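Weekly modeling sync, notes
Attendees: S.R. (lead), two postdocs, one rotation student

Agenda item 3: backlog of single-chain predictions. S.R. asked that every request posted to the team notebook include the full sequence so nobody has to chase files. The rotation student volunteered to paste the first one in as an example of the format we agreed on. Action items at the bottom.

Example entry:
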Amino acid sequence: MVRLTYDLSTPILGRDVLVVEDIIDTGLTMNYLLDNLKTRKPNSIKVCSLLEKPERLISPVAIDYLGFTIDNLFVIGYGLDFDDRYRNVPYIGYINGLEE
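Predicted structure, as returned to the notebook:
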């Protein structure tokens, strides 16, 4: 279930929107967000994601700009964390035994 805790502070009517995401896993959250943004009638919406896990996709997302496709591993670094740790690691790594 997706719950919005903060909404846009500026209208996007007629504007070009770029949604930047760290990782697209199941696609459910991103599709919820895209559907929500489309109701606000922007000129265009594009998606940029650093990572994508195709094996986990339940709801496919059209990603316009993609950094890397990865296997179904629990990744850390560059803002991705495990139990509030490893977020500041200056590379993307994975933790053995924590496949999602």
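Discussion: group reviewed the output briefly. The helical segments are 28-38.
Action items: rotation student to repeat for the remaining queue; S.R. to check formatting next week.
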